[in-house]
Amino acid sequence: MPNPDVREKLAVMASQYDYRKPPEILVKIQEWITEVVRAVLDFLKGLNIVVPRADTGAVGDIMQILALIAGVLCLILLIVLMFGRLKHLKNQSELARRGAITVDEDLDSAGWRKQAGAWADSSRWREACRALYLSILHELDEKGTIAFSHTRSNYEYWYALAANTSIQKRFRRLADIIELVWFGNHQAGREDYQQCRDLADELTRLIREDSREDSRETSGAGANEVEP
Known about the structure:
By secondary structure, this protein is mainly α. Helix content is 73%, strand content 0%. The protein has eight helices and no strands. Helix 5 packs parallel to helix 8. The chain is elongated, with a radius of gyration of 36 Å. It starts with 6 loop residues before the first helix and ends in a 5-residue tail after the last helix.
């Protein structure tokens, strides 16, 4: 019995087949996975660990191991980045507390203000801005508003100034500029120094006015006392 002629049926089936080439990126990923699996199998073979290449379960186990290794590496990287960030923040805190500026002698508010002008004349705007900030910290101490402390942070100073919103508001603006030029990537310039100097002038005036008011209140309270 002669074989049936199926050429027409095959031609019809071929005409209905719509082959779509997969995206090139998927082909590349498949090739990379194949190369990784082959490298792992060769590595295990070098350790006398035999993994049957035809065993799809074994290949799946290898892929799980690779995923676990990748997860561990990502975790280690995250920990390293986290500790690096914490170290950076710690260094910033230490710089803020120590003042981060070395001079030949201990300076008061007027001394830091004079030093700021000297650094500004040398276009050392970053140090000049910082010196203005230190002059305000010493001004607060000298007028009895807040005692100066190397361990006190900017936020602690700001929080302690809550009783005088005018001083607190301007202090916050000055501290924000200092943090930007001292710890950030911003390159300090003449405009930054001018802004810091204007804020320092306003703060000095407000701190001295507040100190005089406190003195008058104290004097008035003493005068109103009646001797027994």
